[in-house]
């Protein structure tokens, strides 16, 4: 009887793992509950320091040129060659399933949803609450029924359940052409979950966007791996990469899933991108590092390699960055 029960547990666990996604290198991304408790008891709570924002974005309406604006965290407004993309849109006050608890914003989004131009495409890297904010997605869908929402495999049903219809979901290396722009979903080393029982049931990744005369790459969240070299080999060197530099401390707990600034620079070099902008810092306090440590360590990593700060820039939220096409 006991043997039967053990077999049943064994086979049902196999069944469960079959339904879950894995990293390309099989890097396990599941920390034990004991590790989680250890982090909870030892974790630091850094002082939330408000970084400076810019209101340069207000000029975009009169601008005929192509531009990129960092709205905060991993949210960018990208307007290139007549198509407007919004990445990982998070405009809510907390990155959390509930409105009264969970990580709160240190700074407001540099632009509100009502300030945005007409959005053609929304790209979502994975379903963590600081990247997939269903309230923001619903508001965007209500503003424009033509906006197309690109999400990782396994997340489409969540959007559909909330009444968002114009959606498509992707496995790694799958792509879609929208108005002359090819969007390809690429592998990263991370994980997914929104609740206790859905760990890795949806995929995670980056979005590579090939405009007719410009290539840009949004890396989502990732630990350091060979995935970025593969992305360059398969899709070419991006003109611009948007790379996370925050949420990396303590290393024993975060390293597998989040690059530190030094590794973020290596990601930029692996991609071979001409230019890089930092993201995923200064917006929510998610982990143990001080708010201002990621940009400081990035500057140090750049100077150690003899690279100019303009190779991997720290932007102000709301700053308007013009894009020069090839
Ligand atoms: Zn994440
Ligand atoms: Zn994140």
Radius of gyration: 19 Å
The spatial strand order of the largest sheet comes to: 6-5-4-3-2-1-14
Largest sheet: 7 strands, mixed
H-E order: HHEEEEHEHEEEEEHEHHEHEE
| C-alpha end-to-end distance | 69 Å
Low-confidence spans: 1-17
Give the bound compounds: zinc ion
Q: Give the overall silhouette.
A: globular
Structural class: alpha/beta
Mean pLDDT: 92
What amount of the residues lies in strands? Answer: 15-25%
Counting DSSP H or I runs of 4 or more residues, the number of helices is 8
Helix content: 10-25%
Q: Tell how many strands the DSSP assignment holds.
A: 14
Report on the structure:
The protein is α/β, with parallel strands linked by helices and 326 residues long. The chain has 8 helices and 14 strands. Strands 6-5-4-3-2-1-14 form a 7-stranded mixed beta sheet. The model is unreliable at 1-17 (pLDDT under 50). It binds zinc ion (2 copies).
